[in-house]
């Protein structure tokens, strides 16, 4: 049955709700990963494929960016959700020319993201010509010529945008940004703009490097680990093993989240007996059930309490020597949080003051603290300021640049951090651009390009006319779906380099291309022989990844080959960048990376070391802070308290256990008790009572955005089932991407311009059948 894709689309009437779980993983996790493998790949291929995940001679798991352990690796160095990610890519199902001949684009546009993704791997380059109803095959050369012609026809290179999703290898990313800049634009929007951009912005300003400062080994030394706005049980399951080990070593864990996520409460590790037979390891010692967007107030309160304790008993709560030697801005910070209005803290957090006091004491008593966070902090209007406040508390305690301590933004896509290192950035710094110019003898543009939100604005206004995407699913990942779809459809040409069918292919520009590519699991054969690529994980470890499976089709090309092929069609064979050589042998790309990208010298040798190498990080390595002040900056941030009008709820959009962003693996959210459906909205039973809405009833979600300049746009998603759920009061949750039509394009975080996917004011209206 493995080759057969589902023909029926989702039937939400089968939706079934059970009680949420208070533990994650366990043997069910192993069984579920086996089921996905068998359904998509069959038995032999499942065993062969999964054996290679995250092994030194294998490929990097295309799931999340959590690092692999150095040295010894288990036979199964992956998790349930990594196994699903691999099964999705290594599936035996195919989407070829016959599929496109049978399904007009208009029909495909009516299908769910789930149905589209389940059809299988793309096998041939396909084109949708103006006015055509169906995609038809096209040769690679014709496809490159078509894109090159469209690009050359633009009145300025800035009318093109080159999007990247974070699965792209370092080699492909380096070539891709070089192509965009050789052509003449810095329009390099990427998924990071919707993800950890807020973390990068805050960290760059505070410590001088926009990346996390801990390694996996630090989790073994920490005595306090704070997990804020992150759901590791679903999105970074291998992190649970690190938390379990830390717990055994005596560390305490604080979880801060509006939802009692199963993976924060208890872990039943399927790889040991206690996890299989026993109750597993309890994780959070303290669960702070915070209101959405309340973290900034919480961390200001923690700063306030630490300073008060220090005043009372000097040496008890602040690392005065660190503050004195390494930080800037202490007085202003101390004065600001000293004047904290506690009633604002109460309303922002909803947390009991005794609990905040207990957590402050845990910080004060800890010698080695790590704070981890993800989208629960980065996707709010005040995201950057919130992360600055997290840093303030860690800096007071001297928790940077020593073992077992530091900042840990847990990245999403497996190579999103590497892509940025390689120059996928609309605002790449001057030294990087100057290095490109010097290395290749080109002149790259210096004015900043468009990020994701600005690309959409430019499309909407007719200022971007060609959209090229190296991976991802732009239409479903971005906010304001109706506007986004209109924006994409208004382009002259949209091009998607993809492994699998998704919604972005069926919301085409006047002409649209699908260019099918090799996945990370597949063998990459070029003229100089078999190639490997490199990636960087969430903790700055760079290492090799080598696909082993036969490609899904003989027509597939690697991402590197596609970028270099287009570059040659566009820029000609006498261009100073040796595109043909890059495509032939990826060592030639790595030689240039070594000379251009900071920290990558001797790249070809170092990535061939068994565990790769770690990029330099001055604050982590030597407590040097390459900031404007030359020190780590304590910052003053005006407190933002989310306000929600009477009768409204603050809604977050998040991931179920059965999806990878816009790729929907299945229809169950096991830990939250949801089966066979996705159109649910989780609301506290007392809020339901207050709103007069019955548990299990069906509602439309309508978002309200006071800053809407026209006030005339109604953003509504229809027919969601209400689920009474133990979330924080006043806060609701539903799944991404179903919720994306509710998020106004202009509702973004200050500084990072990240869409506010976790801060949407909504009202619930009875659904009209
Ligand atoms: N299996 C799987 N793995 C993935 C992904 C996937 O889709 N599936 N996606 C990958 C990607 S790209 C990313 S970026 C990461 C995402 O990883 P996460 O950030 O864990 O993803 P979300 O599902 O968005 O969950 C956000 C969490 O933050 C909490 N939260 C929301 N708002 C707030 C808040 O205001 N304060 C606090 N304290 N908590 C809040 C939510 O309740 C939820 O637990 O995962 C990566 N890994
Ligand atoms: N409402 C709401 N919106 C969100 C979020 C949220 O929490 N809430 N989260 C945001 C976040 S954190 C992120 S990172 C973005 C994600 O945004 P994207 O990265 O754009 O989306 P994905 O769903 O990860 O992309 C999936 C597609 O990538 C393609 N693909 C998979 N593997 C490969 C590969 O190896 N090569 C190539 N070329 N293509 C491949 C497949 O065709 C697949 O359909 O969404 C953001 N949007
Ligand atoms: Mo992400």
UniProtKB/TrEMBL annotation:
InterPro entries, per the entry: Asp_de-COase-like_dom_sf (IPR009010), MopB_CT_YdeP (IPR037951), MoPterin_dinucl-bd_dom (IPR006657), Mopterin_OxRdtase (IPR006656), Mopterin_OxRdtse_a_bac (IPR010046), Prok_molybdopt-oxidoreductase (IPR050123), YdeP_MopB (IPR041953)
Keyword Iron-sulfur among UniProt keywords: yes
GO molecular function: 4 iron, 4 sulfur cluster binding; formate dehydrogenase (NAD+) activity; molybdenum ion binding; molybdopterin cofactor binding
Annotated Pfam families: Molybdopterin, Molydop_binding
UniProt domain Molybdopterin oxidoreductase: residue ranges: 121-498
Gene Ontology CC annotations of this record: membrane
Keywords assigned: 4Fe-4S, Iron, Iron-sulfur, Metal-binding, Molybdenum, Oxidoreductase
4Fe-4S listed as a keyword: yes
Record domain Molybdopterin dinucleotide-binding: where: 649-757
Domain of life: Bacteria
CDD domains with a match to the protein in the record: MopB_CT_ydeP, MopB_ydeP
Cofactor(s) needed: [4Fe-4S] cluster; Mo-bis(molybdopterin guanine dinucleotide)
Family: Belongs to the prokaryotic molybdopterin-containing oxidoreductase family.
Protein name: Formate dehydrogenase subunit alpha
